Amino acid sequence: MRIPESILEILRREERFVILSHINPEGDALGSSIALALALRRMGKAADVYNRDGLPSIYGFLPGSDLVRRLEEMKVTPESVVVILDCNDLERVGISERMDCKLSMVIDHHETESDYGDIRWIEPECPATGMMIYYLLKSLDAGIDSVMATNLYTAISIDTGTFRYSNTTAETLLAGADLIRLGADPSFVAERLYESWSRNRFMLLIETLNTLEINRVGSITVATTVITSEMFRRTGTTSSDTENFSNFPRKIEEVHISALFRETEDGRWKASLRSKGDVNVARIASHFGGGGHKNAAGFLLDGDIEEIKRAFLKAVSENLLVKT
User: Fold this and answer.
1) N or C, which terminus of the chain has less Cβ within 10 Å?
2) CA-wise closest residue to 143 among 182, 184, 189, 185
3) Max Cα separation, the chain?
């Protein structure tokens, strides 16, 4: 992977870094952020990690996760270099206006792009931002230790479905093997990600799957599920407990697209789209003002949930979602 020389130069030259990632962070955003911050600190730099929603409890197992603080604690100075990971616009970070900083840098692998960032490194074909940070740290000779390796292994695992999705390549597996050699424990990571759920989270999944609807739209079979605010209250859970829920209906053999619609705290609806093979859900997310990858994307809408579901299925029927 070719890393822009300007990024390497800035990381070597500058002294103060503020690392940000998208709202509702998952393993790729968090693992990449923590690993980069630890590497920069090892190089003698000041590096801090912030996220609007803080650290979800399910990622408390990540070593170094205590570095992640909420946006209200953020301090950006005119000497700071702001690094945005795993997304490429300020709205996705949860920030409404540009920051007074020395430089802004974007490192991301999403297909949809904005124009934010003085320096932008976007690799849509890369399976995870964690892969990009892995190569970046190798090029910096930062010395990846077991803590960084665990974070990067988790980052890559999340976005490849633990090396099961179609974005898994020989290169991905080699990176995973190298991170294991450097100290990541794949059994530990898998157990923490998939076999350490709270009972409340499991009850929320049961309620979510009970909303399952399957529709045939032309040649595409679409599964939809819904999570309301009342379901969160009933089960004592939060949005961070819903990670990976959108993947469950995709396990049904005939389903091409799984769409999970989750009610947000302000009454809007967050759609998380997952697809199989060549079905490109990033295109349909873009139609609704969202974005993402070919097989994993999302958007946010106001309105009645039944009307939103009908609009989504109508978009599918009008061939806005095209196989590539």
Assistant:
1) C
2) 182
3) 57
